[in-house]
Specification:
- This protein is of the alpha/beta class.
- It has 18 helices and 14 strands.
- Strands 3-2-1-4-5-6-7 form a seven-stranded parallel beta sheet, with helices on both faces. Strands 10-11-9-8-12-13-14 form a seven-stranded parallel beta sheet.
- Helix 14 (359-363) links the parallel strand 12 (343-346) and strand 13.
- The longest helix is centred in the middle third of the chain and has 26 residues, at 245-270.
Length: 444
């Protein structure tokens, strides 16, 4: 890397530290986890310094990456039972999820801010023998310091969208040396590998997506089935929804309900049936927001639309049958939500946000309807569509109508559910391939 460019970058990251502290303070108002152990982000730790290079560092920035890291960590422990893990994160939800992955001797701290001083203190304190960066996290100073310390860094389950490639190319003097200095990159797809190579990354394998190797929790699935059987109408889920999507979802649901109610009322009046017996909505609605700080906001939005609402955190044994909308306001229970749903609309795909992971839905046998924006999981989305496990639509209106069309044809829903299970099973194996490749770095 050009020394002058690196110097300016490092100066910028140093100067940005007060702004990071302010940002953490603001985020902490909604998620208290951001206010814990703040000094770890700047290289100050409560743990005793490591005396030997034993730890394998796994960096999983957020919730999704942390769940994927759990798949890899389990596979690593199976191969090397005594392995000690240093787990880092950037978000509060990631850190909360990561706590469940720890065993005796493991360490969990915040990701160091990418200033020269913070990164230097991180490597000096923990002395990792190997670093595994999940999916996308490549920081110039971190990579440079690892290289200087002789710590090989591998980017695992690596993905890179066209949008991210173009952004990286705009700062090529920073990004290209960082990617080129990695010890190895294991890509999810050939398309990801091609884009990563364009940045100079040493792609040593294309292993597929680790998320396929996750097995849905059996107890959660049993609970989801139990709750689903207690409801006498189809359950339609908006999964991992993002800001703006819930509003459009509720608008389209309301429009569909009014249309169907008007049609049904006309038919019942003509038949001499009491209009008050006509069902107001064709679905039981379930919304699971992506970010926990938005749970209360989504509840208020539902109530603004005149709908009754019940949050998962208030359920006493089972969801109430008299609530128009259920809100999944818990973490780590997506297998429950997917199993209790007949169809799921994929959050993040109806706004230009890249979509969320649909693999868990498929593994639970829940058909997916996705919007036009799935660039974060492009290959998985394309494969799922080709397999019949997912359907792509252009907007929320078409999504709601497509869900309705599927649910009035039980055979179509069952076929899509079975296709999802087959799709999930056919693409497993990334964890074993990744562990085998990492063995060379661990032995080295």
């Amino acid at each position: 890397m050009n020394p002058l460019i690196r110097k300016f970058y490092s100066l910028f990251m140093w100067a940005a530290q007060p702004f990071l502290r302010r940002k953490l303070l603001r985020r902490g108002q909604a998620e208290a986890g951001y206010l814990e152990f703040v000094e770890e982000r700047f290289g100050a730790y409560l743990q005793a310094p490591e005396k030997q290079s034993e730890l394998v560092w796994v960096h999983a920035v957020s919730l999704g990456e942390t769940r994927t890291a759990g798949i890899l960590i389990d596979a690593l422990r199976e191969q090397w039972p005594g392995l000690r893990i240093l787990l880092t994160h950037g978000t509060a939800t990631g850190r909360a999820e990561g706590a469940s992955l720890l065993r005796g001797g493991d360490v969990q701290v915040w990701q160091p801010w990418d200033s020269e001083a913070a990164v230097a203190r991180f490597f000096k304190h923990f002395r990792p023998r190997l670093g595994l960066l999940m999916e996308t996290e490549v920081w110039p100073n971190t990579v440079a310091r690892a290289q200087a310390c002789g710590v090989p860094l591998a980017l695992v389950n690596a993905r890179l969208s066209d949008k991210s490639l173009q952004q990286s190319l705009r700062i090529a003097p920073l990004s290209k040396p960082a990617f080129a200095a990695l010890a190895a990159v294991y890509a999810q797809s050939e398309a990801d590998a091609e884009r990563l190579r364009a940045l100079g990354a040493p792609v040593h394998g294309v292993f597929g997506n680790l998320k396929f190797d996750a097995t849905p929790d059996a107890a959660q699935q049993a609970l989801g089935r139990k709750w689903r059987q207690a409801r006498d109408c189809p359950v339609l889920m908006l999964a991992s929804s993002r800001e703006g999507e819930e509003e459009e979802f509720l608008k389209q649901i309301t429009a569909l309900a009014l249309s169907e109610r008007a049609q049904a009322a006309t038919e019942t009046i003509a038949a001499g049936i009491d209009e008050s017996t006509v069902m107001a909505s064709p679905f039981q609605l379930l919304i699971v927001p992506r970010h926990p700080q938005r749970f209360a906001e989504v509840r208020a939005l539902v109530e603004k639309h005149g709908l009754s609402v019940s949050r998962r955190s208030s359920w006493n044994g089972a969801p109430p049958a008299n609530a128009d909308v259920w809100i999944g306001d818990s973490l780590g229970e997506m297998a429950v939500y997917y199993t209790m749903s007949d169809v799921a609309l994929l959050g993040g795909s109806f706004a230009p946000l890249g979509g969320q992971n649909l693999i868990e839905a498929a593994a639970c046998g829940c058909p997916v309807i996705m919007g036009p924006h799935t660039f974060n999981f492009a290959e998985a989305a394309e494969l799922a569509e080709a397999a019949g496990a997912a359907r792509r639509v252009q907007d929320m209106d078409e999504a709601v109508r497509s869900a309705r069309a599927m649910l009035i044809r039980p055979s179509a829903q069952k076929a899509a559910s079975a296709a999802g299970l087959r799709f999930a099973a056919q693409h497993r194996g990334a964890a074993a391939n990744t562990v085998q490749a990492l063995g060379k770095l661990l032995k080295g």
